[in-house]
Each structure stands twice: as structure tokens, then as C-alpha cells.
What does this fold into?
Amino acid sequence: MKKLISMLMCGMMVGSMAFAAPMEDDRSYLPEGEEVNGDLSYEEGGQYYVPTPEEEAMNELIASMPELHSDSYYKVVSVTPFLQENSYYCGPATVKQTINAINGSSESQSAYASKLGTTTSGTDMTRIAPVLNAAQSKKQYVYRNFSDMNFWLSYGKWALNAGVPAVLDINTTNVPAFPYRTTGHFINLSGLNMDSNDGSGTTNQALVTDPFGPGFGNKWYYVTNVYQANRNHTRSAIIS
It folds into this structure.
């Protein structure tokens, strides 16, 4: 069972948009050796996802679409952040953020936790897309594995172009731009501001909507930091 971690609630404004520049890897506010983890790992019972042949074909098509590879790209989806109610509710909170952004309303985090099968060990990522698809009809969400920045950006833009946020499972090990340590945490990808499609441009930024205390709210990070945190995770997957 993952330990409960008290969340920093004071001084955080819902809807704040700040740019999180790279910082030193100082996470001393977390108890030594303790991490924020709200996803269900394979060891804890998380399921492997096997895409259908149709999904694999669609993934290849998305990654090859010219309109998803222009160097100049800007798209932001308005997502209201909801502070996760405990240390393992990042899955329910991120689902709530996603559905609320699409429908303009949403159920409680505990209601989504029940639908997702969330336990004190966290949420199985493979359960998220079916819950999102049952709650709205604007976008058919699919669990997609990626192997490089090209696929990742294409999948992210695929969601944003439909006017919806994507869902990421991140591991911030060796990515000190994030103000907390985790090997498994759910957030939304809510926007991209690109001047080069390979992520190397000087203004390339990704907007994330994070339900957890130290990173709570809508914040801009360098695209390479968000990509690396998502790529670091064992799943290397995005729901879009």
C-alpha cells in the first residue's frame, strides 16, 4: 500500500498558468525515500494493453498525418484542475478534469474511482479510456504506446485538435523540472506551443493540468521535459 502524503493546498489558484522552467532537483519537502504514486504498476496488478489491428493501423495513420507535423503549432484546451483528494487519486482526479473539460460538468472523484477500480495502490491506466468514452461522445479515447517524440507529439495533437486533453502517466525520475518525485502519476496534456516539431525549438512548451499539490494547476513546461517524464514511465503510453 502506498503511503499517504499530505498535499499542499494553500496558495494554489485553480486555473493558474505558470511556466515551470528547469530547476535544481530539490524535493526536500517530501519525506526521504517517499514518492507520490497513484498508478497501478504491473507488479501491483496493472494490465498490459494489446491494441487491436484497427487501433494499430490508426496509430500509424495519425503519426503520418502532415498536418500534425508542422513546425508551428499552438493549441490549448481549457481544463479546470481538481486537487486530488488523496495521494492515490490522481487517476480519478485526472478523469474528472478530462470529463469536466468536455462536458462542462463531472461526477465526484470517488465516483470515478469506483468506475476505474481504483485502490489504495492506484489506478490501472488501461481502465481510463473506457471510462472516458462512456462519459462523453466528443472523442473516442484510445490507449496508445509511443516509441519516440514523433509519435508522442502526433498523438497529443490528435487529441488537442479534437478539442480535448490527453492523459499521460509520468515518471519524474531524472526530470527535475517537475516539483515532486513520482514513478507513476496521471496528468492531462492540455496544450502545446511549438516552433519546431522535434521539440528542440526555443519556445517549445507543453501545458499540463496536474491534480497534485506541488504541481497543481495549469502549468507550462518545456516539451522535452513532459515527453521525457511520460517516456520514462514503464508503459510509455498516452491516452488520446
